[in-house]
Amino acid sequence: MNKMKMTNEILEKIKQSMRHAMNGEFYKKRFAGISPEDVNSIEDFEKLPFTDKDDLREAYPLGLAAVPEEEIVRIHSSSGTTGTPVIIPYTKKDVEDWAVMFARCYETAGITARDRVHITPGYGLWTAGIGFQAGAELLGAMAVPMGPGNTDKQIKMMMDLKSTVLCATSSYALLLAEEIARRGVKDSICLKKGVIGSERWGEKMRRRIAEELGVELYDIYGLTEIYGPGIGMSCKHECGMHMWTDFLYYEIIDPKTGKAVREGESGELVITTLQKEGAPLIRYRTHDLTKEVPGKCECGLDYPRIATIIGRSDDMVKVKGAIIYPSRVDELLAEVDGVSSEYQIMIDHLNGKDILTLFFETTAEIELKLRELEKTVETLFKEKIGIFPDAKAVKLGELPRSEKKSTRIFDNRY
Ligand code: ZN
Could you give phi then psi for residue 408, rounded to 5 degrees? Predict the structure, then answer.
């Protein structure tokens, strides 16, 4: 299988998952008037309503459960922007299936029972840590369940236990790498591989972590609503993440229209669980942006691949047919010397045309140099994103700063 395809076998699994989901209050209500028996083609399936995080929030606390309470063995929770969390109930089989997928992730990275797996993601309501641990144990590797924080202790344990695999977010992996370099203890570190959570990270950061720790890096994908991390993993060929399609069906849609993107186009990942019991989800919008990776992977795995996550659909805008998201702009600005990481994009509609203005901060002061920088940014923007912006250089510190995530793109057209 090269890419995710709807087959009769998958359709049957989806129908089964729908029947099961409709045992619970949540989908009984959501799919009122819809029968799984009427879903007999991909077209029928694509008419089903999406499920979004806000819908799950309304089911708080246990409204998502599709099994009787005695079958639920654990819950996990994801935070929300509005304060009401989402709670996902798991059955015994869900917990086991998650570990099976996670062990497969480790195997895909060439990790074996002889490895010692240093786990820094957090434990608790959020799913990360325990998933990393259960997968390592199922594989037969030695789990070192550190959790986050206390860098001193992390480095000591890493040296004393001779950990060979580091599991971390990209930002924590970078912090540890820098600290190891600063202390000059790299020679006492036995790490060979890093398994890095799926938050967005640039190529520059990736190279720094890999070089400073002297490890091979692997991307792991997942979200709390669909088990947690571990539903997809990159292999040593570094060409996207293999998705475990025996447990899920995925689609890539245009986040604005909800329709499937054309082959090779980027869009939002939408997932339907095929085996989940506690809280099955049908057409769940992840808001993660990615694209299908065509062809068969050299590693020989038959699972289809998606590209590393490039951003969130909530942050994306479309101008004159070009898709713009902050990560792409981050990346292209990083290529230009003299341009800082801070920028703002304004999109306006004037005289029947969309106009895009890009403000970026710079350390350059000479007028001539500024104009030159603006031209470089404009050309690069056109080359990478497909449209010409009106680039305007401003002094360092001139753009507003925010303690929270800063807003980069302001769409004033509507
Ligand atoms: Zn592969």
Answer: -100, -35
